Amino acid sequence: MAIAEFASALLSIPKALSVNAAQDATELVAKLRAYHNSSQTQIEKEQLKWFGLDLQAGKLRDCKASGVFEPAVSKIKSLKYATEAAITILRIDDMIKLDKEQKKGGHGDECM
Amino acid sequence: MTTGGIDDLCLKQIVEAGAMAVRRCKKADLKRIAKATGATLLTALANMEGEESVDASVIGNAEEVVQERICDDELILIRGPKARTAASIIVRGANDFMCDEIERSVHDALCVVKRVLESKQVVPGGGCCETALSIYLENFATTVVRVFLLSNETKSIFA
To answer: Whole-prediction pTM value?
Structure first.
């Protein structure tokens, strides 16, 4: 369950990328998932594992062939720290509730 | 090149010799130029004997030094420094905000290159890595659940 949720959380990255480029996020991410799924299940389609988003054309492309790379250290570190941050938030199981401040006078900020 | 000014008297000598002199440079710029051309920054011309002299070894080398006009600004370009290769990037844009944005982008890009050269490892970009990991973990998650259920069943059988 937790692993599956982590997996679906990872998909928010390609989704955010395609939304930022004003492309159809649902379609692109679904396609990308289909490509990677077949690359990992079928040996003859192993080459599909290099596929990533081409956001200027709104398509998928072979990132290895077109030379789109990221530094591995930054990828590993960002995944690590994102997980750490999530764990830190989940570890907090206390809630401190403050009573609402008493209203004084009539000219307080109503929007608060 | 100097951070200070050059007196007219000295300027005349330099012009007559057909040389180029640059005054009121930034010290940070001079330090960088000195590094690139193999020159040494001199704080004074005085030597140990109390006289003025310049040793030939303190002079740097470059293929070409020219003054060029780029968008209302006179720039002095030093091309092909001898000691080590260095490069300046001239950022041009519609307004200051655009230039700032370009500068930040270039800075980010250079940081990425730096990171890659440090670790010499890359992964394919464009959300490729995340999707592959996501699919792998999804498949892995199903196997974990299966093992977990199986062990519960076996427990109930053997209990």
So the answer is: 0.67
